[in-house]
Design a protein that fits this description.
Six copies of one chain form a homohexamer. Chain A is an alpha+beta fold and 190 residues long. In chain A, 16% of the residues lie in helices and 31% in strands. Chain A contains four helices and eleven strands, in the order H-E-E-E-E-E-E-E-E-E-E-E-H-H-H. In chain A, the strands form two sheets. In chain A, strands 2-3-10-5-8 form a five-stranded antiparallel sheet, with no helix packed on it. In chain A, strands 7-6-9-4-11 form a five-stranded antiparallel sheet. In chain A, a hairpin with an 8-residue loop joins strand 6 and strand 7. Chain A is globular and about 60 Å long. The N and C termini of chain A lie far apart (41 Å). The N terminus of chain A is likely disordered. At the D-F interface, loops of D face helix 1 of F. Strand 1 of chain A pairs antiparallel with strand 8 of chain B, so a sheet runs across the interface.
């Protein structure tokens, strides 16, 4: 509605005639259901952005739910177009972000329990790890209808096609064969 | 951090020297605790914005928790500087917003259960009512570090000093004495 | 021109090929003509936004003229996407806005005479009443090409379909029958 | 209020504690008084921006009144930070703007009578001339609390210190002595 | 990519399906080649904006190269939608901008040598002149994907159709015949 | 000037009274001097942002020069607050960026020669490697006065204090001892 009413094509979503908009355009269900965390990282993200909720188009806000198995982690990643405010719904997380080069790459961390809120500024690398004995659940709000997500390991070592191993070897001070091995793992979606 | 690092006085919050920033600046606890809903409306809001979390300054995002007693309601209100994405954590809500005058003041509503998400566009009047038999809890993300809240009834009938009853009587097609009565109720914080 | 030159579909208005733009795209006539104020509120608004002036698309500015019969009023309303700067061209107005909940819903008012300017911040509820013996005229500039208008009474009590009377009765501390009566009045466009 | 409430130092205006804000902070009088047009150009501008109305700080809107003697003109100028929507209150203006180099510097003009509205996109050179037999008056809204004004002739030929005449002679295909003469005229405030 | 990925029609450029984007969409060659400066002003600008690089759409940045013959000049001009940061690659420039009317049209200038950087704020009139004995080259970054360029002399005296000479004569304190002469020169692209 | 004129404290830089601004506030020298590339990566960046040029405050643009030894590289990094447009001044670079997770982490690369321009969208991981036999030089414009830089390897493995090795081992599918080794290398500034 509102802004969206007048927007037809902004951000690539075709906004319907606002006179035809219904509650369904502003609605999504299912964020109470635990995501499947039986994967390598023991983590699952359920998104609620403009791809699931067309009415979010031009509104500049979105959200997602994160499930963590014990020891599961949301690995180092960035949202290129949004800051994030995270609420722990269940469990105990260890969350942190790292400041930029000119601030000495300082690690800012906090152990978060149920009901704790933590903030991740736009574009900074951050992560959260389930350090409790049970599953953990968090819910985050972000100030973009399509914040994007760039998982560092997947993006660096799992790019398609792969980044030349020699380049990454130098950048990360790794043996080129280690890089190749990482690229094999991440490039195949592992 | 990040943007905030360089911001000293934006939006009235004095940003500390970023080299002195700590995790506490980005942290808030207590959103797991039910707010006290023993009030006329049976509702309570716990805020997590720049007033509670100084690190939010300039980041353009915030959140709050809402508790509803049975039949409790978050009455018609607006956020003048933010859109909102709400997640139902417990209970059953009836939520809605009304479009602007040029769209015929159309009411868009939805019954929301646990895990449902609903969106309220910036500046539109919206409300949510607990229509279940138990307490309800919701958590919202907003795209402003200080979104503001304007509860319609409190603002119209509870302004300090009061708006001239004759004006409101005409605007709302109410008897001036009814308006005076409302102003007595709302102006005293009832 | 300018920004608009390159904008085809932003905000839902189809911007013509800038090479084909003419003065008509940036022009509107008729704001010297008094609007018809023979209505319940004794007020009339003549708009000059992107719906009347297609060249405003993406330029972020618009305007309107307001006519007030004696005792006429622009009732409590908000513009969800713009701040407003009003100039009194004729007559005497009593204008005001109410601050948000966290500032105690403070009423800020001023009697305005010809040549006076008053400002209404984005998203705040405001109103202006003709308190003179003659017709009054004002002209306002707003910082959005489509600022929107939400008249509180029409939106709360005249929504289509109506908001459940019990909810509004609780929110506004009114008898449900009074709410029903109001909804009958406003819902029928009275 | 609103946004400004929380802004202390944005845009160089020290915003007072919002709890101390009064109606005077949002008010300006005197725009009904004709400005003095007994000057070379026969024009006068009365401003209503953040310098006169401190409450405009961060609100992104402002206005001004323009008076024109017969044959008076608002000479070619730009507002570096705002688009403008102009309403003719009295008289007959010939108004125009010129598109940018890549659109062939097309002149878009319109004769404007009382009640006509015309739009000037951000950063484009525009002008308005009183082509009627009487004084003319216009009122403009702009989408910046401090839009700025750059009168081309004063800026080019009246800069302090002067721009080297040889440079301007080449740029404007004028004899250097003509440039010097212009600089003498404009540099002294004529 | 990124933002653009989701943008279909913003700013009038039809963004391709991001899954089909290639490196060519983010690439331009040829800025090492001197532009042809055998023209009246002895200057040439090679652009690198969204018209040449479609992937710039929505990214808010662009660039251009400027070549200057000895004594060549980039004449007084403005970018209506961007600030500019210029780097001198070769030669010696005299660069300046003029502040707005309310700051007394102050001329701010600097002689720039190879490796010097100078900044031109959005919407201010600026110029750069090759004051060395050799060709000069500069490269500029701007914060808009389509910053626009308004050369003052071409826009004022070379508009199509021409601005009425009497108006410009008064604005610039020139004889109308001088204005006509200028308009003949600039209107024909000289 | 311009916008900055009125800005006192935005983004943490104390803007001087605009009437006292001089050309030095908008100037920086030395970008013609090759940076020292005798370091592990064979790369050097010379910045021209608001920290070096105070007049950039609020103008939303900056730049830097990059020097690359043969085989030198600007390793994978992001700018959290800006898009970048790079021009190759000398040499041959291999440049690339990787799209976000929802676009399959696609690697977009290009070999760049002198005079080639390439674009890096805000927040995406990108890199450039000198693949020629000689030194290379590039110059970039960015749409922020303080874009920030987050070198991935330094931020992940060189944070202070270090990120718990077990977490990174899991995220990057590395042996914890390899992570520890990396952290020793990067944490000491190697």
């Amino acid at each position: 509605m509102c802004v969206c009413v007048l927007v037809v094509f902004v951000n690539g979503k075709f906004c319907k005639d606002p006179k035809l908009a219904t509650a369904e355009d502003f609605f999504l269900s299912g964020l109470n259901k635990p995501g499947n965390t039986t994967n390598r990282l023991g983590v699952n993200e359920t998104e609620a952005n403009v791809e699931q909720i067309p009415g979010l188009n031009t509104l500049g806000v979105s959200a997602f739910r994160i499930d963590y198995a014990p020891n599961g982690q949301s690995p180092p990643h960035i949202h290129p177009r949004a800051s994030e405010i995270l609420l722990v719904l269940e469990g105990t997380l260890y969350a942190g972000f790292v400041t930029s080069d000119n601030l000495n790459n300082t690690l800012i961390t906090k152990v978060l329990h149920e009901g704790d809120v933590f903030v991740f500024p736009i574009g900074l690398i951050h992560f959260h790890v389930n350090i409790g004995n049970t599953s953990a659940v968090a819910y985050s709000g972000l100030n973009s209808q399509f914040p994007g997500e760039i998982t560092i390991a997947d993006t660096i070592f799992g790019a398609h096609p792969r980044i030349k191993p020699d380049f990454l070897a130098k950048a990360f001070q790794l043996d080129p064969n280690v890089v190749k091995d990482l690229e094999n793992k991440f490039g195949n979606g592992n």
